[in-house]
Amino acid sequence: MPDPLEGPRDAAMLCTRCHLHGPASRTVFGEGRADAKLVFVGEQPGDQEDLQGRPFVGPAGQLFDTILGEVGIDRSETYVTNSVKHFKFEPRGPRRIHQKPDAGEVQLCRWWVDKEIALIRPKLLVALGATAAFSLLDRTVGIMRERGSIHKRGKDGMPVLLTYHPSFLLRIRDEADKARQRANFASDLAQARDWLAANA
Ligand code: SF4
Fold first, then answer.
1. Is the CB of 113 under 6 A from ligand 1?
2. For a surface tag, which of 9, 69, 85, 93 has the fewest beta carbons within 10 Å of its beta carbon?
3. How much is the pTM?
């Protein structure tokens, strides 16, 4: 079967809609099933994703895979992408330090996210973090306050479940808090699994 995402993926490789294409190595488009019922949207590729050209393959992606496995979601049955397709960073010596994309960059790159969603037409979108929530819902979201809730997108009525970005878990120093937030994240992913089972 032809892959409906092939054209947009190829076109995104040449995207110069914003300045972020300059310093980054490559466009990191989404990957997964073109007929996925569940689509995860993160923030932007990190250092490893930029080097490998694939989303969610760095430390946060590995933690994401682990927790997905724990709640019984098979990543190969889903589609995983980012709100912004180029890595935004600040060079510091040999290191490239992640920088959060701003609202204008997210709005420009929404062109690609909306194309992915329109072609896949999933049952449920999961916003991983505040940037993804802004990209999908076009409003500022307090993730700590709103995680675990489901909202309808104005433009297509598609439901969006809000949760943390897995990189948030990696940044927590306090072990008890880390365990608590990890359990919250797992609970949100389990909610996505159960919502799909009830509505797919
Ligand atoms: S970040 Fe998005 S909008 Fe900006 S150049 Fe890359 S693909 Fe295009």
1. no
2. 93
3. 0.97
